[in-house]
Design brief:
Pfam families: PCMT. By secondary structure, the chain is α+β, with helices and mostly antiparallel strands. The protein is built from three helices and two strands, in the order H-H-E-H-E.
Length: about 80
C-alpha cells in the first residue's frame, strides 16, 4: 500500500470482473481462516467486495470503516 487515498471517480474499477482474477474472494476468505464467532473490521471497505462475503461467514459483527467521504460501502445488519 502506498498510503494514498483511492480516487472515488475510479470506483468502477472496484467492480471490474478482472478484479476477481486478481483478488479472488474465495482465496482471500480461505487465507483469513475466519471462524463464525470472529468480529471483523474492514478498513477502507470500498464497495464491500470483501466485507459482504465476510459477513456471510461470521455470526457476530462485521464493522466497516470508510477511509474517505466518497466510500461506496454501506452498513448492513449483523
Amino acid at each position: 500500500m502506498t498510503g494514498d487515498l483511492y480516487e472515488h471517480h475510479k470506483a468502477s474499477k472496484l467492480l471490474d470482473p478482472k478484479r476477481q482474477e486478481l483478488v479472488p474472494v474465495g482465496k482471500v476468505l480461505e487465507l483469513l481462516k475466519l471462524n463464525k464467532d470472529d468480529i471483523v473490521a474492514d478498513l477502507g471497505c470500498g464497495n464491500g467486495y470483501l466485507t459482504l462475503p465476510i459477513a456471510k461467514m461470521v455470526e457476530t459483527k462485521v464493522l466497516w470503516i470508510k477511509s474517505y467521504p466518497h466510500s461506496s460501502c454501506t452498513k448492513f445488519p449483523t
